Amino acid sequence: MISLITYLSRMNRKVKLLIFALSTLLITVITVLFYIRITDISLTEINPQNEYSYNSETKNKKIVYIGVISRYPPHIIYQGYQPLLDYLSACTNYKFELKLSDDYNSAVTNLINKEVTAAFLGSYLYVKANKQYGIKPILKTLNEKLEPYSRVALIVKYGSGINKITDLKNKKLALPSKESFSANWILKKEFKKYGIKEQDIKLIQHFPHHQNVINQVLKGNFDAGVVREQLLEDYKNNGLKVIEYSEPIPTPPLVVAPQYDKEVIQEIKNALLEISQKDKIKEGITRNWDKEFIYGFIEANDSDYNYIRQVYK
Amino acid sequence: MKRVKTSLKTKIVVFTGSVFVILLLLISITLLFQWRSIIIDKEIKSNFAVTKTFAVSAIDALIYQEQTELQKENVLETYVDNFINRIDNVKFVIIYDPAGTLILARERSIGNNFHSEFASATRKMTKDEICSIYRHNQFGWIMEVSIPLSIGGKIWGFSRIAYNVEPIRSEIKNVFFLLLGSTIIITFLTLVVLYYFSYRLTISLNDLVNEIDRINLISESDSIDSSETIIKASSQNDEIGFLFHRFNKMKKRLEKSKIELEIAQKQIYQAEKLASIGRLASGVAHQVNNPLNGIKSCIYAIQKEPENLKQTNEYLELINEGLNNIETVVQKLLGFARQEHNHKTKIDINESIQKVINLLDYRLKDKLITLNLNFSSNLPLIEFDYFLFQEVIMNLLLNSFDAVSQNGKIDIKTEMIEDRLLIEIKDNGIGIPKENLQKIFDPFFTTKEVGVGTGLGLSVCLNIIESYGGTISVSSIQGEETIFTVVIPIRGENENINN
After folding, report:
1. How many domains does chain A divide into?
2. Cα–Cα distance for residue pair B495/B317, rounded to 1 Å
3. What is the pLDDT of residues B2-47, one digit of tens each?
4. A190/A275 same-domain check
5. Mean pLDDT, chain A, integer
6. Residues of B near A (CB-CB distance < 8 A)?
7. B243 pLDDT above the threshold of 60
8. Domain containing residue A293
9. In whole angstroms, what is the distance from residue B261 CA to residue B271 CA?
C-alpha cells in the first residue's frame, strides 16, 4: 500500500488526474450498480408446512362421516378434530370427514339418520339421546392422569367481587347450550344445593359455544359463566378466576347409533385405543389434536354415565 | 536540502484514510444488507400474519357455505371485498378450490381486465406457504403470499394475496441514501481530522528537520556558549517532544566528540611534525656542522697568527657569516616546529612552497636532486593556515626525496583550473605498487622501516586538505614516477572551511 502511494506520488500531474477521474467514474458506476442491486427486492420464499402429517393415500378410500356437537366455533372444531380424523384416515381403510351440526340436537339427529357413522357428544346430551334413541357409547377420552373424568368450572373476572355461587344473585350468568352438562350442572345441581332460584339471577343466557361464554365474561357483558375446565388453560392469563369446580364426571363419549357398521367402528376403536399408550403420546401424534383427545381413549359403557342420570333425573 | 517526494503526511492521510474508508464501506454495506433483510423479513412476517388471519375467516366462510349449501361466492365475496377495502396495501386477492380452479378474484383497482384475466385460470395446488416479491406489469412491486386454506388434512382451497411493497422499496432507498450520505460525510470528516493530525505531526518533524539542518557542530574555540546551539525543544509531551529531547542530548555528545577529535587531530599533527623534524635532523646537523667547522678553522687560524690583523678581520667576517647561517637554519627549524594552528591568513602558495624547499635545500644537494619549479604567476591568495599548508608540502616533498635516488628529479607545478588551485608534485622515484595505492592515505600505513616512518604523514595531509574542502590524489607507475595532485577550492568550500 505504502509502495503504491509512493509509486503514485511519483507520477506526473496529468496521470494523477486521469487516475483520479477514472477512480471517481469507477466508484460512481459501482455505486449505481449497487443501488440497482439493493433496490431489486425480488425473491421467493417457501415455508414448508411442518404440521404433523400422515403420509397415506386417501383418494380411493370410502368416506366415513363423523359428527360432532357444535360446542366450539367451526374453525376451532376443525383445528382440534381434523388432525384426529387425518390420523384415523391414515390408520384405517376409510377416509374420515367431519360433519358439523348446527346445534347440539342435530348432531344426534345426523347419527340417527345415518348421515354420520359416529359422533362426539357431550355427556349430558348422550344420557338424553341414549334414553330417546338408544345410541351407545363406544369410547370416552382420558385426562392428563389417564383417567376418564373431566370437570366444568364456574368462572368470573378478577375483581368482580364474586367469590362464591351465592354471590351470583342479581348477576348476569352466561352458559353454553341448554343440552350441555355445564349448563345443567349449575342450574340443576349447584343452584339447588345453595338454594338459588333462576329468578334470583338477573339474566341467564345460553350461547352456542363455550368460547362465546368465556368471551362474554372477559368482555364484562356477563358477571359469570360455566365452561369445560380444559378450555380455561388457553385463557388462564387473561384475568379469569374459577370460583367453583364440578365433581369429576365421565368424559364425553364417541357414540354410535343402535345399528352401526361394526367393521368401521372396530377399526376406529383399534386406532384410537392405541393412542392412550404413552409412547404414542410422546411421539407427538396428538400434539395438534383437541385438548380433550391428547391423552387418548378408553372403552366406554353406558353404565359409566349412570352418575349423570342420577344427578339430573 | 533534498525535497521529500512523498511526504509522511500524504502517506498517513492516504493509507489511514483508505483503510478507514474501506472499513466504513464494508460496515455500511453489511449494515445496508442487514437493514434491507430486516425490512423485507418484517414485511413478509406482517403479510403472512395478515394472510393467515384472512385465511381463518375465509375458512370459516367456506365451512359456513359448505354447511348451509349457499353459493360459495356470496359469503366469500363480501368478506374479500371488505378485506380489500380495509387493508390499504392489498392489491388483489384470488382464491382457488383444492383442484386449482378459480373461485374468486378481486383487485383494488377497478376498470381493467384483471378478473377476466384470471377467471379461467387454474393453478396447481400447493400445501406450502409461498411468498414471492416481484415486479408486476400492472401493480408494480408486489409481495404475493400464497397459503393453503386448510386445517389438518381438510383442504378448502388456497389463496393468493398481493401486497404493495413499493413503500418498503422506498424505505430501502432511503436507507441506501442515508448510509451513502453518512459514509461520504464521515469519510470527509475523517480525512479532514487525519489531515489535521498528520499536519500537526509532520510540522513538528519538519521543525526538527529544520533544526537539524541548522546544526553546526562547533569547534572548541566556539564552544563558549553551547546553550545557543540547543534545539528549541518541542512543547509536545509526546514522542515528538521526546525525539527533540533525545536529539539535543545526541547533539551535545557529538559536540563533545568533535572537540575530542580536534584535540586528538592536533596531537597527531604535532606528532607528525616532530617526526618530520626528526627526518630533517641529519640535514640540519650537516647545515650547522659545516659553518661550525669553518668557524673552528677560522678560530684556529686567528689563534695561530693573532698579530695578522688583516687575516683576523677577514676570518671574523667569515665566522660572523657562519653564525648567521646557523641562526637561519635554527630559525627555520623553530618556525616549522612551532605549534600554531587554525590561524587562517591569506597565503601565497608559490611563496609557501618555496620556503619549504629552502628548508629542504640540503636534501636536494645531498642527493644531487634536480628540482624543476613550474609556478603559475597569477595565482590568487587563498585562505589557509600557513603552518598546516607548509606541513602538507613538507610531507609530500619528504616522501618524494625519500623515493628518488641519487641524481633524481622532482617537478613541482602550480596552476589555476577554473575556481580551483592545483599543486602537482611529480618525482621519478621508485613509484608505489598498485596494491598500495588505495592504502597510502590510511593512518599508520607505511612501507618504511620501523622507526623511520610513522605512517601518519599522508593521512594527516589528506585530513588537512579535506578540512579545507580540497582533495589529494595519487597516480604512480612503479619504477618510473609518482604524481601527487593537491586541489584546493578557491571559493565556496574554501571560504566556508569551518563548515
Report:
1. 2
2. 49
3. 555 557 777 778 888 888 888 988 998 999 999 999 999 999 999 9
4. no
5. 86
6. 5-6, 10-11, 14-15, 18, 29, 32-33, 36, 40, 44, 48, 56, 59-60, 63-64, 67, 127-135, 141, 148, 151-154, 165, 168-169, 172-173, 176, 180
7. yes
8. 60-148+250-311
9. 15
